[in-house]
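ARCHIVE RECORD
Type: protein–small molecule complex
Small molecule: 2-acetamido-2-deoxy-beta-D-glucopyranose
Source of inputs: curated submission
Record status: active
Notes field left blank by submitter.
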Amino acid sequence: MKNVCFSLFFSFGLLFNWVSSQTGPERAALPPRGWNSYDSFSWIISEEEFLNNVEIVANKLKSKGYEYVIVDYLWYRKKVPGAYTDSLGFDVIDEWGRMAPDPVRWPSSQGGKGFSEVAKKVHAMGLKFGIHVMRGISTQAVNANTPILDISKGDAYVESGKKWLASDIGIKSRACGWMHNGFMSVNVKSGAGKAFLRSLYQQYADWGVDFVKHDCVFGDDLDLDEITFVSDVLKQLNSTIVYSLSPGTSATPAMAKAVSGLANMYRITGDDWDTWNDIVSHFDVTRDFATANMIGTAGLLGKSWPDLDMLPLGWLTDPGSNNGPHRTTNLNIDEQRTQMTLWSISKSPIMFGGDLRNIDNTTFSIITNPTLLEINSFSSNNMEFLKIASTNFRKRIVKWHSRGLEASASPILGLTKCAYSDTTGWITKSVDQGLEKICWKANPEHEYQTPFCLYKRGSRVAIDKEAATHRDQVELLSFSTSSVEVCLDATPKRKHSSEAIMRGSFFPCKRHENQKWDLYANGTLANHNSGHCAIVKYKQAKAIPTGVRSWVATGRGGEVYVAFFNLNNVKTVISAKISDLAQALPGKKLGPNSCKYREEWSGKDFGLVSDLIAAPVESHGSALFIINCS
Ligand SMILES: *[C@@H]1O[C@H](CO)[C@@H](O)[C@H](O)[C@H]1NC(C)=O
Ligand SMILES: *[C@@H]1O[C@H](CO)[C@@H](O)[C@H](O)[C@H]1NC(C)=O
Ligand SMILES: *[C@@H]1O[C@H](CO)[C@@H](O)[C@H](O)[C@H]1NC(C)=O
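STRUCTURE (tokenized, with ligand):
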């Protein structure tokens, strides 16, 4: 709290006296809605691809309240061989160490125009333009030791007779955990650090940016000093920029209370991709934020919203990929509807992630469902409703499934000192056609489990002169569902999704030092870059939540919404008593034989409610009832 007070005081104070536009409309009065490039393009989107998508948003989605179009991360990175999500030295920066759009991917930025031409086009289509930015300052700017722009003078920042440089403000020990080579925090306690951040956000406002997604500052990466300062800068700029925080790994209502008033939306989970586990991991945390009254609470010059992340539906790419959209979502239709229903009834911002040039009618109808969009924007009293009953269709199978889950243990890769004796578990096995694999010793607690193995890619034997030890230099491949080969990667910590930890240890093969491993005769596997050794631990798999859930909300026309969610692996009948609903939503005239109801996804009209609302719900599916009482 001390920090918060300190910097609020400081920047309202003597140093700067900017014209403020605080009379503008309330920011994020409703949960923001739009399109974001990440799920379909990873980082590689071009201006043409972006504007094609923007045009479709304008023609087909704007009338449904989709308003923001957002370029996600690394728009400044050159798309050339060797560049990837955590590469170093491929970014376009200006003389003040600020990121500039890659002029090859973003031709209209040439001549120092940044995103201003793109923003103009977006505005001409009646939409709002957003960009993703990382925490602090880039490693590239620190290495180049660029001067810092003082926007009040239009010249280099000078304090105490000293011209301050990027290396004076970058804090190397606070590199972004999942983009270690890319960005680090800046010292916002120094005048130069403040000047640098101001020079960034003033430029975004000058470009015409309406929305900033600030990444690697929240959740496990919390940087409250930077959030506080940026929020303050945004308050004083003559702009209406909506401020969004990311990611949300391990975020809790207690942590969010420190930022909800400073921003307009903030993520409450890790990245959401198109797996059932990712969807399911949102139920509890979303409930906790609803219970803590965090939905639509006061935010930066307006409101703030817990954010469940983009909708990975339709035509997509893979996390962190160097490839554009090339596959359809892995979620089935029931799971897609469940996601849209939960996101809507918990009033999360809705940002569609699929490539709109290739959207199919089913996806389009899900993301434009008028009832859900109405609920998302205008419902109130949104909360989990506990008094529901359920009957499984095949109870015995459910039991069998859950026992199966408890028994399995997933391998987790770790890195440790090579001198430790527990590192010597790797053995080489040959498979067919000259292919070799390297496997970790059997798991003593789960001997029936197939051992954890990786396939050798390149290999050459080296002999160290001093130690005279043989080592086999290898790259290690894992199986991958996509066509991209993924290699075991020792880069410290990746941005991990809600679901997989294991997945974070593999990345598209790049032949860089973090993916090269030395296999020694004593059975250790040492990383070329860090020198640390890989070990495998078997962690008891966290059981995927099953059971049934329900959420309720009330509409602006007096209607009542009840959503049932079936997290079981079998079809389940879910029911709620009208008397229990009446208790949860007093004043709604809910009573037997006085209300009519219909279900949204089936379109079925049920007529008068007697004393129970009940429906069979498909595995991973949902039912959404609209109840109107006289
Ligand atoms: C602030 O923005 C408004 C509306 O965009 C504009 O009319 C005004 O000139 C701006 N003021 C300054 C000082 O830039
Ligand atoms: C998709 O919707 C469009 C517009 O409503 C329609 O013309 C087209 O036939 C539909 N396609 C399919 C495969 O249903
Ligand atoms: C295995 O061999 C390597 C290379 O000689 C050595 O650095 C490492 O400490 C050894 N580890 C163990 C546990 O013997």
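CURATOR ANNOTATION: The CA atoms of residues 283 and 342 lie 8 Å apart.
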